[in-house]
């Protein structure tokens, strides 16, 4: 995959995926449910458990492989590809037309694709190319407990973010002005764009996470 007609090769795009989501209740058309079909070798539950164990083992092996490959990226190469990916998003018509979006706050230690430029552009709430004010609502994840239960809370400025115990920026329940942050589940407008982190993706957009649940 290349940006700007053959410029920077986006090898790191495996860590970053964008999904157009027309309505919160409608899953992406590319989503493929995982089904286990019982065979003649045993009861359905036993077969399902065996197949699930195989899938889990393959996921672990793939995660190890991808992590090794990401470690060989030089800081300069990572920065170059981060900029190229973010520019691709910022210049896309689906980003410019979006009104509500969920995005992750990138963590350098996890070697995630940087989203700082995208977040800054959303919080600026402007379309520089046309000089128009385009109001966008931005919701970012907050981990609630050790079981990785998560909420997506709206932020309106970078000061609404605080570092958690893992030094990852996330929204506080109240913003910098001491107002309660809006939960995306209570949003009155649909979310039409998701920017999701991931360790790897296939060509159909199916995602391999980091195994944290």
UniProtKB/TrEMBL annotation:
- Regions annotated as coiled coil: none
Source organism superkingdom:
Eukaryota
- Enzyme Commission number(s) from the entry: 6.3.3.2
Q: Which Gene3D superfamilies match?
A: NagB/RpiA/CoA transferase-like (3.40.50.10420)
Q: What class of enzyme is it?
A: ligase
One Pfam family, short name please?
5-FTHF_cyc-lig
Q: Mention one GO molecular function.
A: ATP binding
GO BP terms: namely: folic acid-containing compound biosynthetic process; tetrahydrofolate interconversion
Q: Which UniProt keywords apply?
A: ATP-binding, Nucleotide-binding
* Tagged with keyword rRNA-binding: no
Its UniProt entry gives the catalysed reaction(s) as: (6S)-5-formyl-5,6,7,8-tetrahydrofolate + ATP = (6R)-5,10-methenyltetrahydrofolate + ADP + phosphate
Q: Which PANTHER family match?
A: 5-FORMYLTETRAHYDROFOLATE CYCLO-LIGASE, ATPASE INHIBITOR/5-FORMYLTETRAHYDROFOLATE CYCLO-LIGASE
Record's protein name = 5-formyltetrahydrofolate cyclo-ligase
């Amino acid at each position: 995959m290349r940006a700007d007609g053959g410029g920077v090769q986006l090898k790191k795009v495996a860590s970053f995926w964008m999904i157009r989501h027309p309505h919160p209740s409608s899953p992406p058309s590319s989503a493929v449910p995982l089904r286990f079909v019982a065979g003649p070798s045993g009861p359905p539950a036993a077969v399902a458990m065996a197949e699930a164990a195989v899938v889990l083992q393959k996921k672990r092996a793939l995660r190890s492989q991808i992590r090794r490959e990401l470690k060989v990226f030089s800081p300069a190469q990572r920065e170059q590809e981060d900029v190229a990916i973010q520019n691709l998003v910022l210049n896309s018509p689906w980003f410019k037309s979006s009104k509500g979006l969920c995005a992750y706050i990138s963590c350098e230690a996890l070697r995630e694709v940087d989203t700082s430029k995208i977040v800054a552009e959303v919080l600026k709430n402007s379309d520089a190319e046309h000089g128009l004010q385009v109001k966008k609502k931005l919701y970012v994840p907050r981990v609630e407990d050790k079981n990785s239960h998560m909420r997506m809370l709206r932020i309106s400025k970078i000061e609404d973010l605080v570092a958690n115990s893992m030094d990852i920026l996330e929204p506080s329940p109240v913003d910098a002005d001491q107002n309660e942050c809006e939960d995306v589940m209570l949003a009155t407008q649909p979310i039409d764009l998701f920017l999701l982190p991931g360790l790897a993706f296939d060509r159909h957009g199916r995602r391999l996470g980091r195994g944290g649940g």
